[in-house]
Amino acid sequence: MWEDGAVAIQNRNAWLLTVFAAVYINSLTVCASGAGLEQRSAEHVRIASFNIQVFGTSKMAKAHVVDTLAKVIRNFDVVAIQEVRAKSNDIIPSFVKHVNADGSSYQYVIGPRLGRTVSKEQYTFLYDTRRIEVDTTSVGTMHDPGDRLHRPPFFVRFRSRMVPPEQSFTFWMINIHTDPDEVPEEVDALADAFLALKMARPDEDDIILLGDLNAAPKQFDRLGTLDNISWAVSGTTTNTRRTKTYDNLIFQRTTTGEYTGRWGVLDLQNTYGLSLKQALEVSDHNPVWAAFTAREVRATTTASMPTGGSRH
User: Fold this and answer.
1) Distance between CA atoms of 197 and 49, rounded to whole angstroms?
2) Contact between 104 and 79 (Cβ < 8 Å)
């Protein structure tokens, strides 16, 4: 249902898909393009992933950091955010107010606090309400009985609003932040998570797994061998120090024909004229993104090759 509220969905496989009942959805008004990328078009949906390192009270107290973060968000239609780490429930609502201070119209969906230690994290999606809509019957957190992931993925189904509803691109997003000490095991588990969601909801063929995997494509192993699987980011680094490729967007090219082949890394230093020290205040990760058509594309039997990425 494309409206406020949340209802549970379940998968009869080993993985259980459960809706986090206390999902918060916040709204304000209007839209504006941010600095860094060209203005967003009505024909495309620009989706991003951003690990905002230890995003909590201390970071929100730094006005210059919050200003940069808000500029980043305004470049995108949907942003999957990892590493929200705060005891307070006010961090994301307060941040969204900063994002919307220029007249933008972003909402958020936030998951539960997750983690095996006292240091818990939350996944969040921010989305531009003028261009994107949430299916609130399809919002939740994934959990496997084997406890294979420190922070089980958070999933939401979205739809583009730039075209008539019967033509619009609908898609799942699975938000993930793997544990750096158990990368092989957790990336392997993500292959099962991807397939579980696909089997649980065969009515939706577009699944985008994205986040901080702490793994380059060569480390995807079984996840990277799923049928027609592809990833947006390759051949460049995604961390702020420009040494590692940790962040990505992963999907099946034959079913997600909406992928345009355009992707990029929004380099915080280059885009906002920051020193390395200043950029690291914002995060130790750069945002990564990919563009998809706003209209649904029929699934194909063959996958086309990407047209290439960019670094800003």
Assistant:
1) 20
2) no
pTM, two decimals, is: 0.88
Q: What angle do CA 138, 140, 146 make, to 5 degrees?
A: 130
List the single range of 115-119, 184-188, 264-268 with lowest mean pLDDT. Answer: 115-119
Bridge-partner residues for 308, per DSSP?
A: 262
Q: Cα-flanking dihedrals φ and ψ of residue 134, to 5°?
A: -105, 135
Helix (H) or strand (E) holding 199: helix 183-200
CA distances from 253 to 71, 100, 182, 234, 256 (A): 30, 34, 28, 15, 5
Position 111 pLDDT exceeds 70: yes
Q: What CATH number matches the domain at 16-298, 3.90.650.10, 3.40.50.720, 3.60.130.10, 3.60.10.10?
A: 3.60.10.10
Determine contact, residues 214/178, Cβ cutoff 8 Å: yes
Question: Over the stretch 242-273, which tens digit does the pLDDT of each residue have?
Answer: 999 999 999 999 999 999 999 999 999 999 99
Whole-number Cα distances in Å, 217 to 18, 147, 150, 229? 29, 24, 21, 11
Q: If phi over 0 gives left and psi between -120 and 50 gives alpha, with beta otherwise, what is residue 83?
A: left
